[in-house]
């Protein structure tokens, strides 16, 4: 069986432990590859390789780094099909999504930062006629990037691209649930002769390999995307070491539908917002707040659309809902449906595992869940407060604008919101009062990579994207000259 080994200093290396973790295809429930079970010995080796590579990589200049990152982007683009197949096999997401979103976005992440650094400029301040201040932005050295399983290569490259573009060398760890495309990326590095040691990829469990990256004295910054609890653990280790920290964490996002919205479009997008990637996107709208006067109409039409979603083999081109990422996660999501019932929730559609007779043979042991819609719950109950991160959404009526804002803001999270109204003044008013890092008006998941991306409250600390990301991976130094 294929072994996914660590990529360190330009070479594929067995883990010190010689142990491997089974990698399961969530659509079939079958093991299909083995992942290096790395520990601090492997991380130490990777950090040493990165330290050796740093002087040359950081000093060669933006054009040199841009050229290499574009080569990497081109390689992925030329092999989209291979990467997309691997992403779907690893994660269970529909192949249409891997082909049109995940892998193209990974290409875009690399090319975006590769070209952004060609247009960078430094700040200068003339303090008086004979005094000039200017700001140097210098790479940090070796940085750690740790990413989750829901958008594997998409989020992996979202971190490593700005880190590398700004001149750092990287030790990165993909999720142990979805390591395959990061492994293919290391193969890509070898195929194009990417400079050795600049990007090092260590596989394994978070509490072991991830924790070792966080705790290593020579990783100067940690860029982490994942759960809020893990974020707390990482912060508790990295903060006392005064590392730079970027934490992109969980969400419990509201889709807010006012009576004056374009209802057809709002419904179509609310379905996508709730269920794309089986509801496993941090930005998914898992609470739909609906103005009372249109609640019944919205509910009937929304349920109709949800029932039309085609759940099935993620390798089929027309599948819209694939498998949940793992058995453990499937159980977690199903346990929340039980919690919702106990809290008085009414299941309007879904609520169960997909019955094996409704799945093709190949997928009978896969981890599928019916897209689930629940109503009748208080906005303050557990179902509406805690992140479920699956194909489950709730419908909550509201009386007026103030109540919509109160309900939207009433969770510990603050990642994103999607507001639907034709009233421009209201759109601005509501956007400014939502306690989130991102607000979409009459749309969802429309991304411009130049914009700041991140969460408020327990959804994270710091912002990624554009110059925010490049600044995060650099140390600013003010130089003051008197002449
Ligand atoms: P997770 O926190 O379990 O794991 C994320 C990564 O951290 C994995 O690579 C894991 O191995 C590693 N890790 C785990 N424990 C660690 C430790 N102690 N030290 C260092 N690394 C450790 O999250 P997940 O289940 O993979 O992802 C789902 C979560 O990610 C959800 O909460 C989701 O909302 C969040 N997410 C947030 C964003 C965002 O941009 N805000 C984007 C995607 C996903």
UniProtKB/TrEMBL annotation:
Domain called Aldehyde dehydrogenase: residue spans: 19-479
Stored Pfam families: Aldedh (PF00171)
Active site, renumbered: 248
Protein name per Swiss-Prot or TrEMBL: NAD-dependent aldehyde dehydrogenase
Molecular functions per Gene Ontology: aldehyde dehydrogenase [NAD(P)+] activity
Domain of life: Bacteria
Family as reported in the entry's similarity comment: Belongs to the aldehyde dehydrogenase family.
SUPFAM superfamilies reported in the protein's UniProt record: ALDH-like (SSF53720)
Keywords: NAD, Oxidoreductase
Species, as recorded: Bernardetia litoralis (strain ATCC 23117 / DSM 6794 / NBRC 15988 / NCIMB 1366 / Fx l1 / Sio-4) (Flexibacter litoralis)
